[in-house]
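Box 4.2: Ligand-aware structure prediction
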Amino acid sequence: MIPLEDITAALAEAVRTSPHNYVSEQMALAPEDVGQRLYDDPIIAIGSADDPLWEKLKEPQAVGAIFRTPKQWLPQGRCVVSYFAPFSDYVVEGNREDNVLVGNGWLYARVEGQAFLTEMNHFLEQWFESQGVKALSPYASEEFKYVFEAGSSEDIADKSLSFTSNWSERHVAFVCGLGTFGLSKGLITRKGVAGRFGSVIVDAPLEVTPRPYTGIYEYCTMCGACMRCPGGAITLEGGKSHEQCSAYVHTTRVKYAPRFGCGKCQVKVPCERGIPKK
Ligand code: SF4
Ligand code: SF4
């Protein structure tokens, strides 16, 4: 059985050595940004493909009927390997400086960093392959579907669906045991909320890690600090409005084109870098 430590070490090495995890001269908005690292070493949790929670993700209050369980993606799948890659101090601190203006590092991590995360998912597929294990990253596959606004995707039959996908990395991370949701709908891990998730489904029996919580919002103190949202998208009563968040983030495309971003709900908050104390 492949130990968790070996998977963690292999992914950390890939994260450290990929040139796409560093600001290049071509993408830099300021000379001092060149060479800065975007993502820190990831943490990993492993879930069982037979976990009954996968079916629950199909409920409307979770991901919805569009969600495909691990076995729907890979029928012989045995486990799901989910990782959280925290943003580096350079990225987080740069976005703490102003309540509205977005830090350069955040913009790179959000836009160029997305390609980097896809690369890491493909890395995991290939690494498991080298161990004789079939691995599939739904997010990096051609069958991945994300629905923005209701009715916006021609190939999705249910026109009422919005802001959802057939493989939600945050929900997958929740099932695997990486963390719980916060008021801001970010997933709070032991390394905080500021970062991104990825995962692969494997056909090998790995040691499943514990899910050290039962509640969906167990790690969130409901302190309300994330209501500093400049788009007014977060309230204590209603949680986060994906529509309002999306509309606000869209406005940033004018100022930062071809990039965009915000992330103010993930910085200068008690859950930024860890599980907040109650
Ligand atoms: S800032 Fe407070 S309320 Fe918002 S997600 Fe973090 S812990 Fe929860
Ligand atoms: S990303 Fe920005 S607009 Fe969206 S919820 Fe967070 S703070 Fe608000």
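In the box above, the bound molecule is iron/sulfur cluster. The chain has a mean pLDDT of 94.
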